[in-house]
Amino acid sequence: MPRDEFLDVIYWFRQIIAVILGIIWGVVPLKGFVGIAVFCLINAGVLYLYFSSFQQIDEEEYGGTWELTKEGFMTSFALFLVVWIIFYTAIHYD
Q1: Bigger pLDDT: 23 or 58?
Q2: Which of 17, 31, 60, 84 is the most exposed, having the fewest neighbouring CB atoms within 10 Å of its CB?
Q3: How many CB atoms sit inside 10 A of residue 8's CB?
Q4: Which InterPro entries does the entry mention (predicted)?
Protein backbone atom coordinates (compact mmCIF):
# COMPACT_ATOMS: atom_id res chain seq x y z
CA MET A 1 0.00 0.00 0.00
CA PRO A 2 1.46 3.41 -0.92
CA ARG A 3 2.50 5.69 1.93
CA ASP A 4 -0.12 8.41 1.36
CA GLU A 5 -2.90 5.89 0.96
CA PHE A 6 -2.02 4.15 4.23
CA LEU A 7 -1.90 7.49 6.08
CA ASP A 8 -5.34 8.34 4.63
CA VAL A 9 -6.70 5.04 5.95
CA ILE A 10 -5.34 5.84 9.42
CA TYR A 11 -6.78 9.37 9.28
CA TRP A 12 -10.31 8.24 8.34
CA PHE A 13 -10.22 5.29 10.73
CA ARG A 14 -9.55 7.78 13.53
CA GLN A 15 -12.52 9.91 12.46
CA ILE A 16 -14.81 6.88 12.58
CA ILE A 17 -13.52 5.99 16.06
CA ALA A 18 -14.10 9.60 17.18
CA VAL A 19 -17.74 9.62 16.05
CA ILE A 20 -18.51 6.23 17.59
CA LEU A 21 -16.86 7.05 20.93
CA GLY A 22 -18.42 10.53 20.97
CA ILE A 23 -21.89 9.02 20.61
CA ILE A 24 -21.19 6.41 23.31
CA TRP A 25 -19.74 8.98 25.72
CA GLY A 26 -22.71 11.29 25.15
CA VAL A 27 -25.29 8.57 25.75
CA VAL A 28 -23.59 6.91 28.77
CA PRO A 29 -23.01 9.90 30.06
CA LEU A 30 -19.32 10.32 30.76
CA LYS A 31 -17.99 13.63 32.01
CA GLY A 32 -14.70 15.43 32.37
CA PHE A 33 -11.11 14.32 32.25
CA VAL A 34 -11.91 10.60 32.53
CA GLY A 35 -13.83 10.68 29.24
CA ILE A 36 -11.05 12.55 27.47
CA ALA A 37 -8.31 10.28 28.85
CA VAL A 38 -10.16 7.08 27.94
CA PHE A 39 -10.79 8.43 24.42
CA CYS A 40 -7.08 9.16 23.97
CA LEU A 41 -6.08 5.71 25.20
CA ILE A 42 -8.62 3.88 23.04
CA ASN A 43 -7.88 6.00 19.96
CA ALA A 44 -4.10 5.55 20.19
CA GLY A 45 -4.35 1.91 21.28
CA VAL A 46 -6.70 0.76 18.52
CA LEU A 47 -4.62 2.49 15.84
CA TYR A 48 -1.38 1.06 17.23
CA LEU A 49 -2.84 -2.45 17.16
CA TYR A 50 -4.13 -1.84 13.64
CA PHE A 51 -0.84 -0.82 12.08
CA SER A 52 1.48 -3.02 14.15
CA SER A 53 -0.47 -6.29 14.38
CA PHE A 54 -3.12 -6.27 11.66
CA GLN A 55 -1.24 -4.51 8.84
CA GLN A 56 2.24 -5.56 10.05
CA ILE A 57 3.92 -2.60 8.38
CA ASP A 58 7.43 -1.31 9.02
CA GLU A 59 6.85 1.76 11.21
CA GLU A 60 10.22 3.26 10.25
CA GLU A 61 9.09 3.44 6.63
CA TYR A 62 6.40 5.92 7.79
CA GLY A 63 8.61 7.97 10.14
CA GLY A 64 8.30 5.80 13.25
CA THR A 65 5.57 4.69 15.61
CA TRP A 66 5.01 8.21 16.94
CA GLU A 67 4.30 9.63 13.46
CA LEU A 68 1.69 6.95 12.79
CA THR A 69 0.17 7.32 16.25
CA LYS A 70 -0.32 11.08 15.93
CA GLU A 71 -1.54 11.03 12.29
CA GLY A 72 -4.95 12.76 12.32
CA PHE A 73 -5.22 12.68 16.11
CA MET A 74 -6.08 16.35 16.71
CA THR A 75 -8.86 16.43 14.11
CA SER A 76 -10.33 13.23 15.50
CA PHE A 77 -10.11 14.70 19.02
CA ALA A 78 -11.98 17.82 17.91
CA LEU A 79 -14.63 15.72 16.15
CA PHE A 80 -14.98 13.53 19.25
CA LEU A 81 -15.54 16.58 21.46
CA VAL A 82 -18.18 18.03 19.13
CA VAL A 83 -20.10 14.73 18.88
CA TRP A 84 -19.79 14.09 22.62
CA ILE A 85 -21.09 17.56 23.51
CA ILE A 86 -23.98 17.40 21.02
CA PHE A 87 -25.19 13.98 22.19
CA TYR A 88 -24.69 14.71 25.88
CA THR A 89 -26.55 18.02 25.61
CA ALA A 90 -29.37 16.56 23.50
CA ILE A 91 -30.00 13.62 25.83
CA HIS A 92 -29.11 14.83 29.34
CA TYR A 93 -29.72 18.58 29.33
CA ASP A 94 -32.59 19.50 31.68
Answers
A1: 23
A2: 60
A3: 14
A4: EMC6-like (IPR029008), RCAF1 (IPR010742)
* Residue 61 included in any domain: no
Q: What is the 3-state secondary structure (H, E, C) of 27-82?
A: HCCCCHHHHHHHHHHHHHHHHHHHHHHHCCCCHHHHCCHHHHHHCCHHHHHHHHHH
Q: Which residues of 13-38 are buried (b: 16+ CB within 10 A; e: fewer)?
A: bbeebbbebbbbbbeeebeeeebbee
End-to-end, the C-alpha distance of the chain in Å comes to 49
Using alpha carbons, select from 38, 5, 45 the residue that is nearest to residue 22.
Answer: 38
How far apart CA 50 and CA 10 sit, in angstroms, is: 9
29 cis-preceded (ω within 30 degrees of 0): yes
Domain count, the chain: 1
Q: Give per-residue pLDDT as tens, 47-87.
A: 988 888 888 887 788 888 888 888 899 999 999 999 999 99
